[in-house]
Structures are given as C-alpha cells and as structure tokens.
Specification:
By secondary structure, the chain is an all-alpha fold. The protein has a domain of 53 residues.
Length: 105
Amino acid sequence: MDAPPRTAASPTVRLGERSPRGFFLFRLCKRAKLKWLRLKYASLLKKVKKYYESMVKEVGEGRRTIESFQQRMLLETSFAIPVMGLSFTSYNYPSAYALERPTLF
C-alpha cells in the first residue's frame, strides 16, 4: 500500500540546542574563502584601473604626436609650394585617416 503524503512541518523554535547551520570548521573555511575572493577581486580591480589609466595616457600622447606630425606636414607643404594655395579642410583634426601611418615616407 502507498503511504499517505507527508505534510509540511510547521515552523518551530528549539531552545538550548545547537543551531542546524553545520560544522564550525566548514563555516570557517567558507569564510576564509570568501575573504580570499574579495581580496583577489580587489587586486584585479586595481590592475584594471591601472591599465585603463595607462591606456588613456598613451592615447593622449599619441594624439599630441599626430597633431605635431600634421602641423609639420602643413608647414613643409606651405614652404615647398608657395604658389599653390593650401586647403585647410584636409588638415582638420580628427580626420578619418589620423590614426593610420603615413604611407608617403
């Protein structure tokens, strides 16, 4: 014969007994693991911030290098061909080809 279905136990509070949370050593290991993970993620976050700051710094330096190169090219072309008028629209920054290397030299 089939056993009758079990009903859910009603919530009770037991006084004076150990808590059913588990073994103390297990909780201690779990707490240490969480602390270790927190420290690991904090160090990873510091590394990402440092990498981002260096990347922003390098982009700024690269932008200044490109601007100085464009200014030098403008000066050289103005002295090389004094009769020909210059179109300043081609030297607008940022241009579509500003990040590519020059292929003429």
